[in-house]
Design brief:
Blueprint (H helix, E strand, L loop, with lengths): L5 E6 L4 E6 L5 E6 L10 E2 L5 E5 L4 E5 L7 E6 L4 E6 L5 E6 L11 E6 L5 E5 L6 E5 L5 E6 L4 E6 H5 L12 E4 L7 E4 L4 E6 L2 E8 L2 E8 L6 E2 L3 E3 L4 E8 L11 E8 L5 E5 L8 E3 L3 E6 L5 E7 L4 E6 L21 E3 L5 E6 L4 E6 L4 E7 L9 E4 L14
Antiparallel strand pairs: 1-2, 1-33, 2-3, 4-5, 5-6, 6-7, 8-9, 9-10, 10-11, 12-13, 13-14, 14-15, 16-17, 17-18, 18-19, 20-22, 21-22, 22-23, 23-24, 25-26, 26-27, 27-28, 29-30, 30-31, 31-32
InterPro entries: Haem_d1_sf
């Protein structure tokens, strides 16, 4: 395999994963017949490895793009995968299940995997769409973030792995109450803290032995809320995108969007207006945070610099993009965005066109446009890998 930076591009509809070198766009490897869970996303592991879930085969894949074989392990897990997370060592991985292509929650299965021994366990927790983190600083704890009723439920990994076969129900060792509308999870491994985004702000708790101690929530301080939460481990900050405006999804072009950043060491919060339309996930580059904004009047990539600058790169329109008078979710094309904390490259897809725009964040210019031979319906999903020696990792799948 190459030692050049690698971009993993998943066309989850077509069932193909492209491993592409950056910036020249050479395809270093390809996985076919792999329909990765776009919702669970990619989870970075030590030594340049990546975990993801094949929703059709029901397997947790451990990818080793810099090694001799792209797929280092394939381990059976319950699907459809909703979220996945790892402990700070990268040894224990937890996978929760969600709706899949169903209209209501139906699965209560949780899978825990020991990547060192290969040991796995499947247990029943609670029907829903739980978020998950795996805390370290002692024996690992799986923390599930439930909704309706909201709660942070604590399960020691050792107890889950000791469960008998047959997917038995398990009871959490401890619980903390949360608002019912939680959506978005992050972990700060330095202080064994877990964060959950809710309507009234970011709820947080720190580990104390085998339980969690609640701490004061971090308010959004805006007439909006974040539906996505991400840790910037290098700059020690939490990021989200605050969405405001009308609740009706048919009026999505009127949604307001702000980039929300909370410094974990200084406890200060900043917000930056991004513009109207659909903005969701974000990506962290060396000196920039990247957002893709979709709007009927034109799409753009927005780059927020650590120096306080905001730069915008116009993106060409997508055939099949969300339109006025329809929702931005169903049967439309979207965009995925990816970056790496040790590079200035930012990649953004053009859903349905099989194209990836490669932007140099330092100059806010498109350096190349990669053309793949699969369409990247729904925008696909991507991760720009840090080098094999990288140590700054987000412990929740993105």
């Amino acid at each position: 395999m190459t030692n050049e930076p690698l971009l993993l591009v998943s066309d989850h509809v077509e069932g193909c994963v492209h491993l592409v070198t950056v910036p020249d766009g050479t395809e270093a490897a390809r996985l076919t017949g792999r329909h990765l869970s776009e919702h669970a996303g990619f989870l970075t592991l030590p030594e340049g490895r990546v975990a993801c879930v094949d929703d059709r085969r029901g397997e947790l894949l451990v990818l080793d793009p810099y090694g001799p074989r792209p797929v280092a392990a394939a381990i059976p897990v319950a699907v459809p995968a909703e979220h996945l997370a790892a402990d700070p060592t990268g040894r224990w991985v937890a996978v929760t299940t969600g709706l899949g292509r169903n209209t209501a929650p139906w699965s209560d299965l949780l899978t825990v995997v020991d990547l060192t021994t290969g040991e796995t366990a499947r247990v029943r927790t609670r029907v829903g769409e739980p978020g998950v983190t795996v805390l370290g600083s002692g024996e690992p704890l799986v923390v599930l973030r439930h909704r309706e009723p909201g709660a942070l439920a604590v399960h020691p990994v050792a107890g889950l792995l000791a469960a008998p076969p047959g997917c038995p129900p398990v009871t959490p060792d401890a619980c903390l109450p949360l608002p019912d509308d939680g959506h978005g999870d992050a972990q700060d491994p330095r202080h064994a803290r877990v964060f959950a985004a809710t309507g009234d702000g970011v709820h947080r708790a720190r580990r104390d032995g085998d339980r969690l101690v609640p701490e004061p929530p971090i308010p959004w301080d805006a007439p909006a809320r974040g539906w996505y939460l991400r840790l910037d481990p290098r700059r020690r900050a939490l990021w989200s995108t605050l969405r405001g405006g009308p609740a009706d999804p048919l009026r999505w072009p009127e949604w307001t969007n702000q980039a929300w950043r909370h410094d974990l060491d200084t406890h200060t919060t900043t917000r930056t207006r991004l513009g109207p339309g659909l903005v969701f996930r974000l990506a962290l580059a060396r000196a920039h945070t990247a957002f893709a904004r979709i709007h009927p009047d034109g799409d753009e990539l927005i780059l927020l610099g650590t120096d306080g600058t905001t730069r915008r790169v116009t993106l060409p329109a997508m055939d099949g993009a969300p339109r006025r008078g329809s929702t931005p979710w169903e049967g439309v094309q979207r965009r995925a965005v990816a970056a790496s904390p040790d590079a200035d490259w930012v990649a953004v897809t053009r859903g349905g066109h099989g194209e990836v725009h490669l932007v140099d964040a330092a100059t806010a210019t498109e350096a190349d446009r990669l053309r793949l031979d699969t369409p990247l319906h729904h925008g696909g999903h991507m991760i720009l890998l840090p080098g094999p020696g990288g140590t700054d990792r987000d412990l929740v799948g993105r």
